[in-house]
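Suppose you are handed only two things: the residues of a chain and a line of SMILES describing zinc ion. What would the bound structure be? This form records exactly that question and the answer produced for it, so the two can be stored side by side and reused later without any lookup.

QUESTION INPUTS
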Amino acid sequence: MLSFDIRELGARAAAVDGWLSPDDAIWQDGDDVPAEPVHVTGRLSRAGTDRFYWSGRIEGRAGILCRRCLAPLTASVAESVNLIFSESLPDDEDDPDVFQIGPRARELDLRPAVREQWLLGVPTYAVCRDDCAGICPRCGADVNTGACDCPPENDSRLDALRSVRSDEN
Ligand SMILES: [Zn+2]
Ligand SMILES: [Zn+2]
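ANSWER OUTPUT
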């Protein structure tokens, strides 16, 4: 469960221990959706008259692509989370660590916050291995499996020279 009764939270803190499925409706088109359910843990407590504080962790695995060769790979995501949920957003409207909850909301739903933290935690630069040679920028061949038939890199200067000459003609 990632949803909490706000009146009960007013009386006592709640333990957070739930899962956010990759199929959950909270994910949007274009998200780096997790490869398997995300484990969401921690403690949710009252932090003022209309504020609640979630201190915890999200952990899961993301299916992403190697930045160099585009091979699919799985990356671990483990993020500490320290967030405020507030019924009002006085001065800190732009503070990314404050989430708004409706003024008469009965439930505090952690899912939008989990989604956001997840997207922040998914690595944007990952390689399948440190010495991944990537793909050839010209023909797109995976250079890890052997050199392609393209001429060596330094020929690009010759190409530039050729195009200058043909421009002159
Ligand atoms: Zn790679
Ligand atoms: Zn090539």
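WHAT STANDS OUT: The chain has a mean pLDDT of 87. Residues 155-168 form the longest helix (14 residues).
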